[in-house]
Amino acid sequence: MSRLTIDRHRLMQDIHHTAQWGEGERWGQNPTEVGMARLALSDADKLVRDWFIETTEALGCRVHFDAMGNIFAIRPGKREGPPTAMGSHLDTQPAGGRYDGILGVLAGVAVLRAVHEAGLETEYPLCVVDWTNEEGARFPQCMMASAVWAGVTSIDTAHAVASVDDGEVTVGSELARIGYRGDTAAHHTATPLAAHFELHIEQGPILEAAGQRIGAVQGVQAMRWFTITVTGRDSHTGATNFENRADAMLAAAKMIVRSHQVATQFQGLASTGLLTVHPGSTNTVPGVVTFSLDLRADADPKMDAMEAALRADFAAIAAGTETFTDSCTCGRGCAVSWQTTARAPVARFDDDCLRCIEEGAEDLFGAAQAAALTRRMYSGAGHDSVHTSTRVPTAMIFVPCRDGVTHNPTEYTAPEDCGNGAQVLLNAVLRFDAARKA
Amino acid sequence: MSRLTIDRHRLMQDIHHTAQWGEGERWGQNPTEVGMARLALSDADKLVRDWFIETTEALGCRVHFDAMGNIFAIRPGKREGPPTAMGSHLDTQPAGGRYDGILGVLAGVAVLRAVHEAGLETEYPLCVVDWTNEEGARFPQCMMASAVWAGVTSIDTAHAVASVDDGEVTVGSELARIGYRGDTAAHHTATPLAAHFELHIEQGPILEAAGQRIGAVQGVQAMRWFTITVTGRDSHTGATNFENRADAMLAAAKMIVRSHQVATQFQGLASTGLLTVHPGSTNTVPGVVTFSLDLRADADPKMDAMEAALRADFAAIAAGTETFTDSCTCGRGCAVSWQTTARAPVARFDDDCLRCIEEGAEDLFGAAQAAALTRRMYSGAGHDSVHTSTRVPTAMIFVPCRDGVTHNPTEYTAPEDCGNGAQVLLNAVLRFDAARKA
């Protein structure tokens, strides 16, 4: 087993250097205390992609991108065959941080650099993947392009998804505009991988609270995304009494409250992050309200039951027959419709990959320390690894993030944790590669 | 008493002719079954203003506009003195109809036409007013320019109000852009009026249900508009449990539901027609939600009590200490702030003006029929007459509107009712003018 070392200083330089493309909100005095706003397939996304290709080519990679703009930087090994991959994403939320996704890709670059500078020839090729539109912020379908690669979403469906702020702008048109709509099919048969390792910040408080440094992630909770449309009737706010209204905003507000009540009962999660009101005037009771509903649960049957309960309750709220909300009528009632925009079952990751990660942590910390500093855990957030895990052995590495805060400009992971994560990624990938030889 | 007659056909022609400026959503097969989208100070608003000036000048009026763009078309009488005015507005909601406001101004034009074509010289001048931004849709302060005229709102405050979709665009900049920022002060001392009569569609179901044709409106319920801002913290929808969230959207949804519960208890009204979510992503628990709150009540003390109750309840919801909503936490809690954007107390209209309207209805229907076809009533909606009534004798005339529907493209008032309203307006104004002679 070669013992290579990550250039931790260079990794942090890459994180802060590439932040120039899509710089977001400043939150502190330090030059690095700036959030990110690098929406998928924006001009800023194109620029960081160009940098990624140039950098990995200089590290001896052959680079190609597929019809979804997923970029695969492949460094040849002794033999031909599907590469052992390290993947995550370079896009961010509209008010996001510097680490979510970005750390996973740039740590992959740091692994390539360590291997390249040592002149190491791996058994099989290594690969770093930048997956397109993991966030689903600008184009509201998260983990989009890994879902296409895994065969869960069709390429046509993905290309047709429109931007949240301009219905004329689609994933397909923006891929073409920035020059990242490739000729290779976006499919696991066209770019096969042997495994997928993803380093990511935890986005939760568990590691920090426990004083631990590495999470070996064994799975991800189930998620479903919906767009809910409530249709009532526009009317005058002063002249229309409650009985004569069909108030889409009131019905939507009741549904949002109800989704939290039901999710609490099921020990799942419900969230609404997007909401639009039509026609949009203080003086008009809204005729149409559209909102996003993001559901999470740690078991698929629980998710099924939670969705079924909410469908029944939303229908009752729209019809005005609900009894959850005292003394407050939706008047003549509204119509409600559901559109599913993303769904992923509970993911269970691969035991061999998890062992490579845990042994990689032992390589870093020593066996005794590693037991104290490492834990197996589940992820609350979805990741591209959810989709790769349906096709190839997959596991994830978590590092702590301050106060569990993410999707926020103040998101922060200490340089030491970034470096630890990258080192464990390197160790795990080399262990997986060595095992393939046998 | 001169007996003049409205040219009803010409009135309907004017309604449909001027609808070309700001045509909205089509809702039927008939060429006139199209709604309106003539937002205040838009290009369409400029075009209909130009038409209004050209048309009233041709009917012998001197026309000027003030610093708020209120247009006064004044037809001289036998003596100098403040004119007897007929006013309403030509702006509409973003998805509005052809009658709300428009009927009142164009009926005023029809009155001028009847007087002009008869060669009648009134005792004092007559005037038709087009009040700027009554709707408060694009610039969210309703009855804005009549409030400035009455001295309720300062000109600087009104000029500074920004558009709901572009913070750089203000009332002042748009008045200048379309050429309607006049040199005359926007104040009742600069353009004094002797009285204000306003014909308007009812925007409610009462006249239609009672089979009556004319409402003599003796007052308007109180209204207050607020912009509520709820501030929590952006976080990841999948990785952040309910306890660790500060979910501005959930808190806002609870407040909207609560506003309806409290308004129901007070027999008032509460409505939310605008709501924006920041940062706006399915995957991010929103950190900031801003929404409009429109309150109405038929007595000022009731309004005070309702507002006080809601301020206490919203604070409790934000803090997470409320008990209205079972088993659903706002986690770490949010901050809530209130900004008042418009307020009007209960308005009581003038008895002399009301008598002129009721006698005007007798002129039209005959005394026996008029008793059955006319009623005194209150208005649920606010109107420019609320503000004029604080300075000069004021009353309103209502005509039925189908199914009480307004602020909606399908808003409809039958030609017969439009004509009846204009005829009663003519009769009432001539009666008021004649009484001034005495």
- Structural class by SSE content of chain A: alpha+beta
Number of domains of chain A: 2
Here the CATH topology of the largest domain in chain A equals: Aminopeptidase
Q: In CATH's first tier, which class of the largest domain in chain A applies?
A: Alpha Beta
Radius of gyration of chain A: 23 Å
In DSSP terms (H or I, runs of 4 or more residues), the helix count of chain A works out at 13
- CATH superfamily placement of the largest domain in chain A: Zn peptidases
- Mean pLDDT of chain A equals 95
Q: How would you sum up the major sheet of chain A?
A: 9 strands, mixed
The outline of chain A comes out as elongated
- Estimated share of beta-strand residues of chain A: 15-25%
Measured by residues with Cβ under 8 Å of the partner chain's Cβ, the largest interface is: A-B, 75 and 75 residues
